[in-house]
Amino acid sequence: MVKVVLGGLVVASIPLSSKTSSVQAEELDGTTQIEQGNTIFYQVSSGDTLWNLSVRYGTSVDYIRQANHLSSDVLQLNQRLIIPKTIHTVATGDYLTVLAKKYGTTVAAIKEANNLANDTTRLGQKLIIPILIGANTNETNQPITQQPTQSHATTYSVVSGDSLSVIAKRFGTTVEALRSANHLTTDLLRIGQTIVIPSSGNNVTDTIPNPAPTQDTTTSGIKYTVVAGDSLWGIASRYHISLDEIRSSNNLETDQLKIGQTLIIPKDGEGATAPSVSPAPTTNPKSTSYTIVSGDSLSVIAKRFDTTVEQIKQVNQLTSDTIRVGQVLSIPNAQGASNGETALPPTAVNTSLQTVQKNLQTLGYYAVPTMTGSYDTATTQAIKTFQGDYGLSVTGKVDQATNTAIEHAIVKKTLIKDTKNYLGVPYQWGGTSPSGFDCSGFVYYMFNQHGIDSSRNTSAGLYKTGTAIAKNQLQPGDLVFFAVNTTGTITHVGFYMEDNQFISATSSKGIAAYTMDNSYWGKYYVGAKRVY
Fold it and tell me: Composition bias, kind Polar residues: at what positions (predicted)?
């Protein structure tokens, strides 16, 4: 029998009996932590990606990022991750026992995932609901897959370039259905925003495994049913026919396919032969080579070269999405790269780099009024300066890490501008609304107001997140921390603004701005973190 002690009180006695129910108590910093046989942590193994894990456990990449405060999608071998079922916003009656029963987890797991010291919940509080690794897994730490039904909706995290029409087409639904499912009053989306993808009929999402494609032989050819991941190029390659033959046989005006769509594959006399079970990928005479650099992923490369992940995997005989720096890939139908150089198709360069230039101009790095869409001297220097300021590899080229940092900087610039609208709002302990804030409540409110999903946390808890930033490297939106009552114990947090100023909720003035060298705050400054 193990007694679980919280705050000096015995709150549970748990028997040690079997492999699946064994519990061990470990004393850490004076607080008893519960470690269950069914742990909340997943240990990253070779080949794991956030996408694979999200599919395997039926969650979303965005939820995993939020639960583990990840600033990139890069995983490290043996890294420990919390795999959340969802991020739940506490409503009336949502006690931990109620939530544990509702989501099929335990109170101890929810508390551990959210660093909770007691069972108290607050309205509006966001809680990570963890999947118990082992509760539904086999001995190899891989979950027992359950065939999901297509009647379940799923969630999708908005990325750069998305619009409701693009997402609707991707998931085989309509803009109206997306608006209705998400109670949207406009078509405006934010990067990182999580939206519900409604399911109806043949709507199948990227996160739900699809049944194997079906095919029937008819007098006119082979009937083939499109599944997720299919492309016209991939189907043509599989059946050893040309794109024009498929287009002609199906009266297609575009190469866009819908999940569940039925295609006629012309018979042998008309150019098609049924594929073998594992057809060898064909060589594309228009393919070119590309050398992988840091920050690349198959989806990034596919978007860069206007192709698909499936096409790249087929051409390179890849069995997973795992790639390594320095690896050379053949890119089908590539237009923009040759001899291993990192380049974009001409139209993609113009669009994506112009967006980068505009964002850098907004941030004060790019002074040229014209968005050239090319890596000219001014653009290269602006990128290098930004990379240097944000602690990135200074290359003068926009990789995934740089692009993400620029997008985040734009969000934080808007956030900091918005903080000034709350100057004078009174201090309220535990407050998280414009009627009153405490210091961490102000951070929580501003982050979520600007699309940065953030769980309610204390200043000390926030200090354990993000990346440490030197004082001379502070950028707008970074969090600055102070130890007022006891040396080394974090008791206050605020947003760094710029020009050596920060803004926070103080007990004396409410929301107010101060200089970092203020005679009071300056002596209590401890450090800074970049959490987004």
Answer: 275-287
Beta-sheet strands, E only, within 118-190: 126-130, 154-157
How far, in Å, CA of 332 to CA of 20, rounded? 49
Per DSSP, helices labelled H in 76-117 are: 96-103, 107-114
The radius of gyration of the chain's CA atoms, rounded to the nearest angstrom, is 26
Structure tokens, 263 = 């295609």
Report the alpha-carbon distance of residue 492 to residue 478 in Å, rounded. 14
Alpha-carbon distance 344 to 287, whole Å? Answer: 14
Cα dihedral across residues 171, 175, 181, 185: positive or negative: positive
At residue 153, does pLDDT exceed 60?
no
Tokens read off for 67: 């639960």
| Cβ atoms within 10 Å, residue 499 | 8
Flag whether pLDDT at 503 surpasses 90.
yes
**Alpha-carbon span 223 to 205, nearest angstrom:** 23
Q: In what helix (H) or strand (E) does residue 4 lie, and over which residues does it extend?
A: strand 2-6
Closest CA to 481 of 463, 455, 454: 463
Question: What's the CA angle centered on 156, arms 89 and 126, to 5 degrees?
Answer: 15
Beta bridge partners of 225: 262
Task: Report the SS3 class of residue 84.
Answer: strand
**Which residues touch 112 (CB under 8 Å, ≥6 apart)?**
33, 34, 40, 130
User: What's at 451, amino acid-wise?
Assistant: G
Helix 96-103 with 107-114: angle, nearest 10 deg:
110
Nearest by Cα to 60 from 176, 161, 193: 193
**527 sits in which H/E element:** strand 525-530
Residue 480 has pLDDT above 90, yes or no: yes
What's the whole-number mean pLDDT along residues 212-225?
A: 62
At 529, the pLDDT band (50, 70, 90 cuts) reads very high
In degrees rounded to 5, what are phi and psi of residue 403? -60, -45
Q: What is the pLDDT of residues 27-56, one digit of tens each?
A: 223 333 333 346 888 888 877 788 778 777
> What are the tens digits of pLDDT across the range 89-112?
888 778 888 888 888 888 989 999
Per-residue CA distances from 91 to 430, 439, 488 (Å): 16, 23, 35
Spacing of C-alpha 447 from chain mean position: 16
Confidence label for 325 from pLDDT (cuts 50, 70 and 90): low
Determine the 3-state secondary structure of 348 from DSSP.
helix
**SS3 at position 19:** coil
Q: Is the dihedral of CA 224, 226, 231, 232 positive or negative?
A: positive
Whether 102 contacts 429, CB under 8 Å: no
- Distance from C-alpha of 348 to C-alpha of 80, rounded to nearest angstrom: 36
pTM of the model: 0.39
Rounded to an integer, what distance in angstroms lies between the CA atom of residue 129 and that of residue 111? 9
Q: Provide the token pair at 375.
A: 């890596």
